[in-house]
Amino acid sequence: MGNNILKGKKGIIFGALDENSIAWKTALQAHAEGASFVLTNAPIALRMGQINELAKQCNAEVIPADATSIEDLTNLFEKSMEVLGGKLDFVLHSIGMSPNVRKGKEYGDLNYDWYLKTLDISGISFHKVLQTAEKTEAMNEWGSIMALTYIAAQRTFPDYGDMAQAKAILESIARSYGHRFAKLNHVRVNTISQSPTMTTAGSGVGGFDVFFDYADKMSPLGNASAEDCANYIIMMFSDYTRMVTMQNLMHDGGFSSSGITEEIIGQMTK
Predict the structure, then answer these.
(1) Domain 10-268: CATH architecture, name and number where available
(2) pTM score, two decimals?
């Protein structure tokens, strides 16, 4: 049972695919906290996932949209305001996909057409979402726009491939557009750098199980779960974080600040 910290707030949640996804868990928690929202994903993802089931649980409408298409995004924002009866207070961008990673392409043998798709889908789409929100005048004052990222934007991780550059672009966009939106009408823009998480997208990266265990041992608090990430997102949507913007917020159990841990030493000395 929630505390109604989002009571009366309206928004859009991108990227809920199935019950393992962070966006899915965020939607459930936002509903429990009193928010009303529209769910959206690319048409192909809607066919693959179970978003209609989630929509029933949250009493939400589903509006398909390709986040790389300005036309789709414009329709999404305009229809969302119609459906919800007013401007928006929050948006979650939970989108990431790399054809190169999916096809197992080595970093030194990338398909550059696919590389551009990775950057567009996983990074530049965030700018498109923000720009469309501005041009449609969709955001209420003191609204909150969030995107999910990963520490591979700052550090090198095997098998994460061109997604690392996409996340670096995403984080840079959050800072640049965060400044612009703050000046326009106090809308804040942030990213959350989440622990490796057992989602459909995350587990598609090669060697994920091994790295998940490594990150858990490197994090004093252990890996942050999808549920914990959803709770953090809800807090960032709330009025309790009105003065936080242009930040990349580490939500990783302490992984990003750890040099080495006793657990890793113990593993290496076995």
Answers:
(1) 3-Layer(aba) Sandwich (3.40)
(2) 0.95
